[in-house]
Amino acid sequence: MAKYIGALDLGTTSNRFIIFDHAGRIVGLDQMEHDQIFPQPGWVEHDPMEIWRNTQNVIRGALGKTGITGDDLAAIGITNQRETAVFWDKRTGRPFYNAIVWQCTRTDELCRQLSSEGGQDRFRDITGLPIATYFSGPKIRWILDNVPEAKTAADRGTALFGTIESWIIWWLTGGPEGGAHVTDVTNASRTLMMNLQTLQWDDEILNILGIPQQVLPRIVPSSDRDTWGHTLKDGALQSTIPVCGALGDQQAALVGQACFDIGEAKNTYGTGCFLLLNTGNTPVPSTHGLLTTVGYQIKGDMPVYCLEGSIAIAGALVQWLRDNLGLIASAPEIEELARTVQNNGGTYIVPAFSGLFAPYWRSDARGVIAGLTRFVNKGHIARAVLEASAYQTFEIVEAMNNDSGVAMNKLKVDGGMVANELLMQFQADILNVPVIRPAVTETTALGAAYAAGLAVGYWSNLEELRQNWSVDKIWQPNMETAERKSGISNWKKAVSKTFDWAD
Question: 167, 277, 371, 458: which could form a disulfide with 74 (CB 3.0–4.6 Å)?
Fold first, then answer.
């Protein structure tokens, strides 16, 4: 048996290739950032060809650093920024337009039109989602309406759509020479076009959106024993390796955290912040602003569903403090700066840069800094930046408790920001539950590795994956009730100030 599993983590700001051993430990990795393109306020794009080039480079980089060869890998799994839409020519592989990123708000007017005929929850019974700029379907419609070449190709049957995992799987398995055009159920469930019950594209919604089914990928399980294809001998891996696992990044973290039982939850602190609660084999509708989504599906098994709370801006707010304001030179410096003060000095930052996601779904909201006085200094601002992620998470947990009827009693955490111990302690304090960081915090890539490894028998079952999970650190809540309630009240007051800003 091959010794390792490879995982591509195709994130919002960077691509990584991580090699895992059977115990779920990292034995090698490489990473490259890609450009964030902002053509105008509220618009966010990526260059799909840059993402493909960087994907090949990080594969070569990780192999080169470790001396591991493609032949040492049993399979490849992929996890990706969800909802980001790519539209390309299947004859050449050339994108018709830049990838429209999940954060982009250019489809706001289209979403308003869709909502005007049946409300924001018009498609929720079918898809589990509200109509929002977040999701992929309206992005495809925008490209068809605004890029004539794409529309012509779609009509002619020579155009393909995919989220980022579809785009990279297609290239890895041959591209224009017969690459597999697939999307896994977790990514398909984020398009606003998949029926949660049938796990197929919904004809009625496609008709309303005006999207031809022929451009869409085939929907497949997240872990698929019938592999979609193999890498090419002349590609970056220099070997034919099965590509057989894919999960949207937040669902991948759920799998990487071994949240396989009903009621288990994880929160990932990355560019955004995403909390998923396993609800089992039945989709649970939300009445408190959450999303109903597919958590994962192993081929031959029933899908596992989740409730999800999606926060657009978490770690991206730290990047904003670094890149736009210049208050820190690197992201890790924020913790040291925040520790120069005892509290936030009465300041709250609500990062509604492109509207608010769960539980509000307000595309008209824009960011605010509230409670400023002459007393406030850059330490207070740094602390307010960190606290914003914790307060946003609190609102998701509050909604989740209301939807599920069960109070969450612990929270597993992962993602880049969990290295920030000040944030993790504040999160435990505001939630008033223990916050648990695992020994391997790269759970998103690990989940993708698990999906691929299960497909080829590298791991035999979920219990084996549970045994790989272990605790690194637990933060216990240590805040007086009055202080917690005051902070939450002030936060909600600050959130209310973001509404009705954008016309």
Answer: 458
**End-to-end Cα, the chain, rounded Å:** 59
List the structure tokens of 124. Answer: 């929720």
Task: List the beta bridge partners of residue 247.
Answer: 79
Q: Cβ–Cβ contacts within 10 Å for residue 351, how many?
A: 24
**Tens-place pLDDT, residues 311-368:** 989 999 999 999 999 999 998 999 999 999 999 999 999 999 988 988 998 888 999 9
Q: Is 66 exposed, middle or buried (0-12, 13-18, 19+ CB in 10 A)?
A: middle
Question: Is residue 242 within 8 Å of 456, Cβ to Cβ?
Answer: yes
Q: Is there a contact between 123 and 205 (Cβ–Cβ < 8 Å)?
A: yes
Task: Kindly tell me the number of DSSP H helices and DSSP E strands found in the chain.
Answer: 16, 23
d(CA 339, CA 175): 50
Token representation of residue 41? 């306020």
Q: What are phi and psi of 280, to 5 degrees?
A: 85, -155
Write the CA distances from 411 to 67, 292, 349, integer angstroms: 37, 19, 23
Pairing of strands 73-80, 242-248: parallel
Opening angle at CA 81, ends 89 and 29, nearest 5 = 105
Specify the residue for token string 């016309």: 503
Phi, psi of 183 (to 5 degrees): -140, 140
Rg (C-alpha) for the chain, rounded Å, is 22
Q: How many CA atoms are closer than 13 Å to the CA of 279, on its beta-carbon side?
A: 22
pLDDT, residue 418, reads 93
pLDDT digits (tens, 9 = 90+) for 136-167: 999 999 999 999 999 999 999 999 999 999 99
